[in-house]
Amino acid sequence: MKRLGIAPRPNWQPEVERLGLIFHSPEGRPYWDESVCYSFTASEIDEIEAATAELQRLCLAAGQFLINNDRFGEFRIPEAARPVIRRAWEDEPPSIYGRFDLSYDGVNPPKLLEYNANTPTGLLEAAVVQWYWQREVMPSADQFNSIHEKLISQWSDIKPYLKSDRLWFTSMPNDEDAMTVTYLRDTAQQAGIQTSALFVREIGWNRQRREFRDREENRIGSLFALYPWEWLLNDFGAAILGTYCP
Asked: Is the pLDDT assigned to residue 244 strictly greater than 50?
């Protein structure tokens, strides 16, 4: 692995904004950095991918251990939510994505810093903005990830599990979350799924029909939420647990 210092594109701000990365400089400090890039060998890429697959296996095994041994209380998971978690785990519906944050120096094996499997961002940067940067700055090189293609493929696998002919997307009304959800909507649409979007605060609950509604009073049958599960339980707990459909 090599860390290479390069000159940022003189027009990088409008270029990344054109692709949706409007949150590149929070509080005036650039978050998107084009002054450095990394070069990997094929064997290093293989090592990272193998480590990722093994970490995913271990995380699933850890989840199974927690469920088998009823360790929910140690994570302060409410009693009422536990049967829902067990049923969802046993049904094994496909998930869409998660993000491993790894530490890797090209010498020692990759180490896991964090697994954000609930509300990961960084998709737009890794799948789209980085790809266009690479095509413009280093056209003879290649980007080893295939996030965009795999997202579309995964949405195709998820489509039969949807409880309605439309999938709603929701998040908080900040630039990063909203643009991440916008990108995810695009990949879902490329997989043939009809989509709509609304912010979390706009989700309604029809008590009489016991169903979630959007702003136009359409029933929300399936929802992707870029929103922490603990917040969902806090904000919609009674409704979520009362309307869960096995």
From this structure: no
